[in-house]
Design a protein that fits this description.
Layout (H helix, E strand, L loop, with lengths): L1 E5 L2 E7 L31 H23 L6 H12 L7 H7 L2 H4 L2 H13 L1 H9 L6 H13 L1 H10 L4 H14 L4 H10 L4 H17 L1 H8 L6 H15 L3 H11 L3 H18 L1 H9 L5 H27 L4 H8 L8
Antiparallel strand pairs: 1-2
């Protein structure tokens, strides 16, 4: 039987897991502490008192749980008070049974989530497996499990190694990696490589690599050099250039256009890397762009610089374009009313 301990109810009380209103079972007499030689041991409380305490505690727990679900939106003070009072019944010995006794709606209350967190810290593998087997997967449950596993690398590694493949494992590892992206990007990248191909894998790899490129670019580049040359690597290269551009726009643009050959990736990242520079210093960005070798990358760079430059000085942008190989047609599209662009 589950044991509830409440500050408002003296004694030991019983609670049936799995049913919030199940009948109460009788507990055996509590073991008295060993008394000093000159003081006799206190007798166990009368059984009638035990039963009354059990009933009172169970009724108080059920009443507070019901009240928590009925709290009106915005009444944070009442919600927080009831959550604290309910948590007074919970300890590491009974938390599993309490969590398992809650309905799906009760699990989504602040108390349910807090109780699951206590269980995750007491028995992470067991709690994560049970939560993952629930018929629904609220995002709050995923974030809770992921955040708790991210606190302890050994627990996270154990989950990654032994949890069954599927949506639950993928979601937890994705969110755990996001939790780690800033403080331990290498571990986050390692988790990302364990995910199946798809949006979550790409998101985690790109988030962690960008964070690492901002804080330790040399280490991030060294890791990237060990990865296979594929479209995913091209996107990470572009993200490294984006991170560099925040500190040195010319160096960032140079890295992007020299190291990324995939025109789709260039098209996705160049407006950010080169466009931000052109927005701040269009003539310098234009001069740099003019030195690029002919090809799709140079044409893309010209379009980006001219478009950003035209926001502050359309005539100057069009005049620059007309001086570039193949730039007359771009100038005509940029400033159709300019007779010089014809």
């Amino acid at each position: 039987a589950l044991v509830l301990v409440s500050a408002s109810v003296a004694g030991v009380v019983g609670f049936w897991p799995g049913c919030a209103h199940a009948p109460i079972t009788r507990q055996g007499p509590a073991q008295s502490r060993e008394a000093a030689p000159s003081v006799p041991a206190l007798p166990s409380p009368p059984k009638a008192n035990e039963a009354a305490a059990e009933n009172a505690a169970l009724a108080a727990f059920a009443e507070k749980l019901k009240a928590l679900q009925e709290v009106q939106t915005g009444d944070d003070a009442t919600r927080d008070r009831l959550t604290r009072e309910l948590l007074g019944f919970v300890n590491e010995d009974n938390v599993e049974d309490i969590v398992k006794s809650l309905s799906a709606a009760e699990l989504d209350t602040p108390f349910g989530l807090a109780a699951m967190r206590i269980w995750m810290r007491a028995e992470p593998a067991k709690a994560a497996a049970w939560i993952g087997a629930l018929p629904v997967m609220p995002s709050a449950h995923v974030w809770l499990v992921a955040a708790e596993l991210a606190r302890a690398p050994a627990n996270l590694d154990d989950f990654a190694a032994h949890a069954a493949a599927g949506d639950w494992k993928t979601a937890v590892l994705h969110h755990a990696g996001r939790e780690l992206a800033d403080r331990d990007p290498l571990r986050a990248l390692t988790l990302g490589l364990q995910l199946p191909e798809g949006a979550k894998r790409a998101d985690l790899l790109e988030t962690a690599f960008y964070s690492w490129s901002c804080s330790a670019p040399a280490a991030a580049d060294a890791w990237l050099a060990t990865q296979p040359d594929d479209p995913a690597r091209a996107r990470l290269l572009a993200l490294g250039a984006k991170a560099l551009a925040t500190k040195d726009p010319e160096a960032g643009a140079g890295r992007l256009f020299s190291r990324v050959q995939d025109i789709e990736v260039l098209t996705a990242y160049a407006p950010v890397v080169l466009g931000s520079w052109a927005g701040k210093n269009a003539p310098a960005a234009a001069a740099w762009t003019a030195r690029l070798p002919a090809g799709p990358g140079r044409d893309l760079a010209m379009q980006i610089v001219a478009e950003r430059w035209s926001r502050s000085d359309a005539a100057a942008a069009a005049a620059w374009l007309r001086m570039q190989p193949g730039g007359v047609e771009m100038a005509r599209r940029l400033a159709p009313e300019d007779p010089d662009a014809r």
